Amino acid sequence: MRNPLYAAYEARLAKSLSPQAIPRHVGVMLDGNRRWARERGADTAHGHQAGADNIANLLQWCDEVGVEVVTLWLLSTDNLNRPAQELEPLLGIIENAVADLAAARRWRLNPVGALDLLPQQTAERLKESADLTRDVAGMFVNVAVGYGGRREIADAVRSLLQEHAGKGTSLEELAEVIDVEHIAEHLYTRGQPDPDLVIRTSGEQRLGGFLLWQSAQSEFYFCEAYWPDFRRVDFLRALRAYGERNRRFGA
């Protein structure tokens, strides 16, 4: 049973949020699963599963306050180099977690990342989950698996060059007109608003390559809690901190 004082504090915190200060797009780095498991004497897979079990809660909280887009970083390109005995169970957990989100049909899922680097089964299951929610009108959820910010920018430039090569544009002609908007049109998140708020759990205070291009003017919030322990009150505190900031967008 929840502590009534804690529940009252959480309710007061939620009520204090201004609807005009809710971020449209929230990026979340779900960090700390392995350390959470280690501190409990459990294996790594247990920590990853505990983290996966908390994802739907986060999406519910985002829904409640009116967030339009959420990007979840579930697996980096660097993580693909982990030992097979850790990576294979993790991929299975991610596949099942995304499939469960799709089955709920509450949110529109969009896999982002270098899917060609993933095992074929993982890539196919992610695409199947996305297809299942293609007609869902709910919140848009980017599922970043096999994602790295540098890789995304390289892929965007490669896609841009291939597009113009198909049109017969010379390199000299392209160099004359290329700008940041041209590259942005080829990012994994093209057509979406850039993240207003990026949250990282586990106490780490670095981006690690998450949404490098898109987060140029984002606000950042670093939470001490490991991802499996991340609560609604932690999310509300992040929103409160975001609402209290004066966003100048580089001005």
Written overview of the protein:
This protein has 251 residues and is an alpha/beta fold. The chain has a domain at 23-147 and 197-242: Undecaprenyl pyrophosphate synthetase (3-Layer(aba) Sandwich), CATH 3.40.1180.10. The chain is built from ten helices and six strands. It has helices spanning 4-16, 33-39, 44-53, 55-65, 84-104, 120-132, 149-167, 171-177, 180-184, 232-244; strands at residues 25-29, 69-76, 108-112, 140-147, 197-200, 219-222. It has a six-stranded parallel β-sheet with strand order 3-4-2-1-5-6, with helices on both faces. α1 (4-16) runs parallel beside α10, α3 packs parallel to α5 (84-104) and α5 packs parallel to α6. It is globular and about 65 Å long. It holds the Pfam family Prenyltransf. It comes from Nostocoides japonicum T1-X7. The active site is at 31, 79 (proton acceptor).
Beta-strand level of the residues, as a percent range?
Answer: 5-15%
Overall geometry comes to: globular
Number of strands: 6
Biggest sheet details: 6 strands, parallel
CATH architecture of the domain at 23-147 and 197-242: 3-Layer(aba) Sandwich
Strand order of the largest sheet: 3-4-2-1-5-6
The secondary structure category is alpha/beta
Count every helix, treating DSSP H or I runs of 4 or more residues as helices.
10
Helix content: 40-55%
